[in-house]
Known about the structure:
The chain is built from 21 helices and 34 strands. By secondary structure, the protein is of the alpha+beta class.
Amino acid sequence: MRRLSLPQSLHLVPLHQLRRNGAADDGETWEMIGDDPQFLLRGKRDGYRPGMYRLCVKLGAPAMLKEPKLYLDGGEGHNEAATIPLIRSDDGRRLSATFELRSRATGLRFDPSQEPGQVCIESVQLHRISTSGLRLMRLARVLRQRVRSPRDLITLARRGFALYRQGGIPALREAAIREAGRHDDRAGDGSYSRWIRLYDTLTPERLAAMRAEAEALPCKPLISVVMPVYNTPEKLLREAIESVRAQAYPYWEFCIADDASTAPHVRRILNEYARADRRIKVVFREENGHISRASNSALELADGEWIALLDHDDVLPAHALYWVAREINDHPDAKMIYSDEDKLVEPGVRADPYFKSDWNLYLFRSHNMFSHLGVYRSDLIRSVGGFRVGFEGAQDYDLALRCVEQVDPSEIRHIPRVLYHWRVIPGSTSMNADEKPYAMLAGERALNEHLVRTSTNGTAVLVGYGYRIHYARPEIEPKVTIVIPTRDRINLIRTAVLSIKEKTTYRNYEIIIVDNGSVEAETLSWFKDITSKANDVRVIRDDSPFNFSRLNNRAANIAEGEFLAFVNNDVEVITPDWLTEMVSICSLPDVGATGARLWHQNDTLQHAGIVLGLGGLAAHPHRDMPRGHHGYFGRASLIQEFSAVTAACLVTPKHLFEECGGFCEDLSVAYNDVDYCLKLRKMGKKIVFTPYAELYHYESATRASDLTGEQRARLEREQEIMRSRWNDWIERDPYYNPNLTLNEANFSLAFPPRTDAAEAYAPRAANLQAAAP
């Protein structure tokens, strides 16, 4: 059976910043006249069904294209959260990518480069990978997870040989298919639709139970759902209103302001519902004032203790307000509540779920993770003056920013459930950020005003997939001590030190190299040479057995800097302002440590934060993601808080390092950085990752594997230390959603989720699993 289907030829349709220069024997030449050229790829079929695909772009002439990408459109428009980097062949004549569509795609977009130039394209072909090919790929993924050492490989080979002796090739094939199937059973088919069927579908029995539980709540707050309306299509308006009327929690009122709609059906429908349900209040504005004024008119109708915001074409699931009321009862000091969300791409079809972090101020400053569903104490909204005119398109972001400034972080609660369905229609920001650039620019203004109000010295700028805040460095550069442990491997330590000295724009630093027993003459000679020529480089000798924590602690004891930058010997600087960026963030009063974005030599991601529980204890999310991809809702490319960052490149104030007792020397190799970050968090400090400090990391080039012999035993001891100290923290990472898997680093769905949703829907999930083919 063929692994690839017959190719489908795709036609290029220029969308943006492209001009045809003419045809040639080897293809068609295009001039890219900006930094965002875009082709729509059009095939014979209308859309692409779920499955594995391979795209091949054949170029008529070699081209050095900057970060070519494929964008997938699942119905919500092309966006940065659904991009596939294209890999260039060695001869520069081909671009290709293998990718999986987990739900139907309505279109593909090809961006050949991120800078002006010319490109000659001979052909674009799309192959669909067969079921057998897909099984092989899944089996390969299983093998990569299972084979971590030569011992694992030997065990697997012995098992395979035994199967071959028993049944020959057919027995091997059957075992391989069975193993891949077990992997599928454990992780599911990855589809959101399947996840919804198993864990987010309300049965009549469960809905009835929620209604009974709502009546039994000790506190039954009145929740005012506020909705501005303007010329909403009749079907969508009715669906929005009916979604509120269907709520399992009955103690609500619906406050609707019509912003002088010109469509006659709007007034008729609103009057109809107001007569049918006394909980529905309506005001008709005499003149159109746009969304901020209309929202304030709706707010004036509200008598509830809490305000929930709903857009006029979106939908609440029937249990949305039930879970909000539960959260209010469980946390009576709460003042702001938000939930996870997804998109309605067509009637009855949900896609693109955003399973969010718990409260994460720095991620919130990078994009509006609070909406949707956003719920506020009504007195809080009124105290800040409601919605502000002039921030239309980002009025909800501006409101949330002003409210956040008035509350303690502990008063902001996150419900890890999809309680809002954001409808995808043309002109909606849910479809594509490019649809409403004014909204993103309004968000930029709101952020800058927030920084001024909070006396945070920085400037926010729009970066397309979110916002970047340039936090200002201190007026007087504090001295930084860069600590680098090493042993021989002169090619590595020399590259690390020279890249720091030659590229780093931050000037007030010293380097302490901790020589852990180097014996090679070239290494020792270079140490003498570099210290004689550079008065900002010191080498100290430590001949004891390797202990990463002790080596760094020893250097920290003699460091002259106000800040410590712990850097591995196998890194190389990419961005010259890496240290400026890290010190600027680490100088903020609530920050305890800052981590950098690290890349493997092949430009795949090595580090963009650490998630507790991932892989069993702690691991790096988005690992091995190709450069050019921004990750899950941009989280590989946005400044944000994590539970920990790697000490391969970590900056921290020296006084905090000393207060925490430095790195734990019982953790000689693994998890010492995670342990240190958790000690900082226990002190109330934040751990912040920035993607704007970038280095290459030639990972663990100077050490043996953690997975053999004595190293394995040592790793297990250190894991046990971590669990004994931090098990409660490891069990629930607040910066990683319990609906996302801990088995893989790609933010895929958890089957089952680690919430009581798994328990609540367990019988239904079991029945659906049993009935599956």
